[in-house]
């Protein structure tokens, strides 16, 4: 059995309310287990409406039978609009590096921070780190749907005694080399210490081509380039961006066109450093896998889409997964296609079912066409362009399942060879739809959604017999932690059980604590929460509450960063960027 070593409790515990730390034991003690002790749902008006807070705790059990309870607290690093070293957090910049401003000269400032990557970069001074943060959008009253998103790079200092983090500088990251960044949502720190983000907007190229001068992508690019004559290109957006940070704070960015184009949420790099599985924030959407040609290099690879073969309906449902190869590509060749192709170069299309049936078109229902069915035919020689620039349409076209509702964050449990993925809503195309072009998923309605567990096997074959060169191929999935809809709202207005998850979004897994952390983006709970779920005991504990109307976002599990452990946690609307303090730092000891 693995045992855990905690070098200093003082190094990982912070009491924000009194500013004191717990005295360290004289000698390190081996830890047998940790258990989260949850907190009540907010009760006072202040808790419900004004506070981002934690009243939870974690109980540490040592191998000698003794126990210690460590209170948790939420520590705010900054809020959008804060001025840090003369720079404003949450601003966005145009292609010329200028801060974008409103008519009165004040900057557009996001209230929607999301993903965080706290990273240790070689060459930085001791106890100094960088933090990449996403800002998903600008407020709607600030032209938010058509203004560029942004990411920031913060310089973070740590107090080595208490573990307290302080942001001492902040600046926007330049995306001008890749046509800007649109609606960056979730992301992660890769095993090779780069940041993989996401673009949650993949503009509909068919709709854009019909009205290019008035489309949202045209307005976006006109704003970003400060040029009212530009006509937008939808194929520049809906990709996975990768950010590399140097010790001097310089950043370089790429977009991985070979990973497909869709409304990305969080991708997860598997332990082989080649296989990547995707959570896609679309309704409906698919489940995808990418196998890179080389380790730690996502510039070329093979893209696959899953087919759901349903095996049960209990507890959110279950299925086996088959995989369909969509194609192989490099970033460079798909980017070249994106520069030159239009939707009509790739597909023939009709909305007329009679014509579609008569002329051999294939009916699909995808995020782009919503509840409508469109009939498609890939033009001669355009299969690769369809696979990588119109990924959801092509996946449905070749028979993959495009019926999931908002498949959000995911993470991997390496010891058990299991992954976890959030499906925010189990509605619409996840229910039986007898008249739909495809109806692979036929499950009971759970508006509160849930988290599913995925199992893996190595070196599987596609549905047509081709070999998949990966040891991490998802082969089945089943409901694990599900929400519960209420027939009538409770006294606080919740329409889902307040003691269970509702509409999970970000999730991350702690390998050392064997705990899955789940953040909500729900209108079924009056307040959104972050939860801790122990995969062994199956205990679910509420550990953080977000002010009413806010979404819990930006989860990152930082285990033993120079002796300290953090759960990074942000919120959107209102915006906070911070972390949960009080977590024990666990070092694996196999002696």
Structure, explained:
The chain has 591 residues and is mainly β. It has a domain at 75-249. It contains eight helices and 35 strands. Strands 16-17-18-19-20-27-26-25-24 form a nine-stranded antiparallel beta sheet. A five-stranded antiparallel beta sheet has the order 4-3-2-1-35, with no helix packed on it. It has a four-stranded antiparallel beta sheet with strand order 5-34-33-32, with no helix packed on it. Helix 7 crosses helix 8 (391-397). The longest helix has 10 residues, at 216-225. The termini are close together.
Estimated structural class: mainly beta
- The number of helical segments is 8
The total beta strand count reads 35
Mean pLDDT: 91
Regions with little confidence, pLDDT below 50 for 5+ residues: 1-26
Biggest beta sheet summary: 9 strands, antiparallel
**Spatial gap, N to C terminus:** 10 Å
Helix fraction?
under 10%
Strand arrangement within the widest β-sheet reads 16-17-18-19-20-27-26-25-24
**Percent of sequence in beta strands:** 35-45%
- How would you sum up the global shape? globular
Radius of gyration: 24 Å
């Amino acid at each position: 059995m693995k045992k855990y070593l905690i070098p200093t409790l003082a190094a990982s515990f912070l009491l924000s309310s009194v500013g004191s730390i717990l005295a360290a034991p004289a000698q390190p003690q081996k830890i047998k287990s940790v258990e989260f002790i949850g907190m009540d749902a907010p009760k006072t008006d202040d808790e419900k409406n004004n506070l981002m807070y934690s009243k939870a705790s974690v109980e540490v059990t040592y191998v000698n039978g003794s126990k210690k309870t460590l209170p948790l607290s939420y520590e705010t690093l900054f809020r959008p609009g804060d001025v840090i070293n003369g720079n404003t957090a949450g601003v966005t910049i145009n292609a010329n590096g200028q801060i974008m401003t409103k008519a009165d000269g004040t900057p557009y400032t996001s209230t929607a921070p999301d993903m965080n990557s706290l990273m240790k970069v070689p060459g930085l001074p001791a106890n100094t780190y960088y933090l990449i943060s996403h800002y998903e959008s600008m407020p709607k009253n600030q032209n938010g749907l058509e203004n560029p998103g942004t990411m920031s790079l913060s310089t973070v200092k740590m107090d080595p005694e208490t573990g307290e983090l302080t942001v001492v500088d902040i600046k926007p990251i330049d995306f001008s080399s890749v046509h800007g960044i649109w609606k960056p949502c979730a992301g992660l720190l890769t095993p090779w210490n780069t940041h993989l983000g996401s673009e949650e907007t993949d503009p509909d190229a068919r709709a854009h081509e019909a009205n290019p001068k008035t489309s949202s992508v045209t307005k976006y690019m006109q704003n970003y380039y400060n040029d009212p004559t530009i006509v937008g290109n939808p194929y520049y957006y809906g990709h996975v961006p990768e950010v590399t940070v140097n010790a001097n704070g310089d950043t370089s960015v790429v977009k991985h066109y070979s990973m497909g184009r869709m409304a990305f949420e969080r991708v997860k790099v598997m332990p082989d450093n080649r296989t990547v599985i995707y959570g896609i924030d679309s309704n409906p959407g698919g489940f995808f896998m990418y196998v890179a040609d080389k380790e730690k290099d996502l510039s070329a690879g093979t893209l696959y889409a899953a087919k759901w073969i349903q095996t049960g309906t209990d507890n959110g449902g279950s299925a086996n997964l088959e995989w369909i190869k969509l194609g192989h590509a490099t970033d460079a060749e798909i980017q070249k296609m994106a520069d030159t192709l239009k939707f009509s170069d790739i597909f023939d299309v009709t909305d007329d079912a009679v014509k579609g049936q008569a002329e051999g078109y294939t009916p699909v229902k995808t995020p782009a066409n919503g509840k409508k069915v469109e009939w498609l035919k890939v033009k001669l020689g355009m299969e690769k362009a369809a696979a990588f620039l119109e990924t959801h349409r092509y996946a449905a076209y070749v028979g993959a399942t495009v019926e999931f509702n908002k498949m959000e964050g995911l993470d991997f449990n390496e010891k058990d060879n299991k992954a976890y993925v959030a499906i925010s809503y189990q509605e619409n195309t996840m229910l039986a739809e007898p008249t739909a072009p495809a109806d692979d998923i036929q499950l009971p309605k759970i508006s509160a959604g849930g988290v599913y567990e995925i199992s893996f096997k190595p070196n599987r074959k596609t549905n047509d017999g081709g070999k998949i060169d990966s040891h991490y191929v998802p082969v089945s999935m089943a409901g694990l932690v599900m929400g519960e809809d209420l027939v009538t709202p409770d006294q606080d207005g919740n329409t889902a059980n307040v003691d269970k998850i509702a509409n999970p979004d970000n999730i991350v897994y702690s390998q050392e604590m064997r705990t899955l952390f789940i953040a909500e983006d729900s209108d079924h709970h009056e307040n959104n929460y972050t939860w801790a779920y122990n995969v062994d005991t199956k205990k679910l504990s509420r550990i953080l509450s977000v002010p009413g109307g806010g979404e819990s976002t930006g989860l990152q599990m930082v285990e033993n960063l120079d002796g300290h452990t953090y759960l990074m946690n942000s919120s959107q609307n209102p915006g906070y960027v911070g972390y949960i303090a009080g977590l024990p730092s666990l070092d694996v000891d196999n002696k």
